[in-house]
Amino acid sequence: MPSVSVIIVNYHGLEDTIACVQSLQTSRNTENLKIIVVNADDDSAERSKSTQVLQDQFPKIEILERKNLGFSGGNNEGAAYTLQNHNPEYLLFLNNDTRVDPSAIHELVSFAHNHNGELAAYAPKIYFESGYEFHKNAYNSSEHGKVFWYAGGLVDRKNMYAWHRGVDEVDFGQFDRAQETGFVTGCCMLVSRQTYQKIGGWNTKYFLYLEDLDYSERLRGRKGKLWYVPQAKIWHKNAGSSGGSGSQQQVYYQTRNRLYFGLKYAGMRTKVALVKEVFTKLKHGTHYEKMGLIDTLFYKMGKKHFTQEKE
To answer: Which of 22, 147, 148, 233 has the fewest CB atoms within 10 Å of its CB?
Structure first.
């Protein structure tokens, strides 16, 4: 297998990261696999403590200690390090709250290698981890672990919303064909070294959420391709680093970053509609929606410091 560096950002998710690395160690053809954990925490003592735990349990992985630079900044740090020290043929950006099928990396790399020379990004079939489904009581026991989180990405360019194809559906083989897709999720994204060097790093203005949409759009702008590769499979716990679905951080960053993304890439008619939507939400939206919109308008991007929950 060609050389692959897996880049994982750990932020207050030590147990998830340990489980993720354990699953990676069961991967096929691991002789050319490097695992880089970017251990991010603004508290240096906590950062050192979690680094020691990871080093003791996984002496062969490489750990970078950094302040919290967000998902985008952490990925950039890991990519810069491994390109300088290992120069891998492929980089795999992977959420720490995932579990990887033993054949997943092999399948992704094989597919990419068959499209050698293509400017592209590749994502696998992604299920909710069993018990982490949005509507977990709606499924019987045999269906848990087979519910889609991502089977390709769809983008509504008139309204600048993006969503995952197949989300909440049980896998009955309906999304088993590899195909080009609207966007590739940053939960698990494979790119070649050449693609990463041409497109550049992740946009740190997003800090968290929608940076994968931006990356996909930049690839598309360079006539690159975005592939969904269902032969590769992983499982995802969803929103583990931001306090879970619906948390103040998730609402804030998704509101702010959607507006930023739309004003950056949408057509003029859609931009006008987004501005009208801003005025409506500033009047009727939640506290964290309003905060996100105001910060976008004043170009206050990057990391946001939160104090307490408020409506």
So the answer is: 22
Rounded to a whole number of angstroms, the CA Rg of the chain reads: 19
Position 18: which residue type? I
Quick count: other Cβ atoms within 10 Å of Cβ 200? Answer: 11
Confidence of residue 270 (pLDDT cuts 50, 70, 90): very high
Distance CA 91, CA 192 (A): 6
Length of the chain equals 311
State which H helix or E strand residue 148 sits in.
strand 148-150
Model pLDDT for residues 107-144, shown as the tens digit of each residue: 999 999 999 889 999 999 999 999 999 998 999 999 99
Query: How far is it, in rounded angstroms, from Cα 150 to Cα 266?
Result: 24
What percentage of the chain carries pLDDT values higher than 90? 90
Residue with tokens 């020379």: 117
Q: For 262, phi and psi rounded to 5 degrees?
A: -65, -45
- Give which of 39, 36, 40 is closest to 80, Cα–Cα: 36
Distance between CA atoms of 44 and 156, rounded to whole angstroms? 42
Rounded to whole angstroms, the Cα distance separating 279 from 301 reads: 20
Residue range 63-82, pLDDT digits in tens: 999 999 999 999 999 999 99
